[in-house]
Write a structure and sequence with these properties.
single chain; 137 residues; alpha+beta; 3-stranded antiparallel sheet; 20% strand; elongated
Amino acid sequence: MNTGTLTVLFEDPFWIGLFEVTDHEGLHVCKVIFGAEPTEKEVMEFVDKNWHRLQFSQAMDVAPTTEIRKNPKRQLREAKKQMQLRGIGTKSQQALKLQQEQNKMERKQQSKAEREAEKQRQFDLRQAKKKEKHKGH
């Protein structure tokens, strides 16, 4: 069973969207920065156009929850209450932190490879220049 939620909240100085998807692997999280406060229409258009581009974090284990049928009015009250709290769950924070760390490691590896490639290119240029000098005219 796949379930997903989107929470739009203000995280100074921008409005962000927090996508949470729970599937058989666990909880996946993705954070998107909107900038100015988005309208419902803008959020729906964003989801329609960019859903396939979202980069979700690795799956985190979550305790299985059994879905209990609730009174619709109670569900509405709880939804309003959550809208007022506007907090990020700790599981979501952990998943976002894990994703940030992974992105950081990938960037480090990529920049190191680029630096090494540039050093090798410079070395090859110097070697070619030396050979050219020794060949004569």
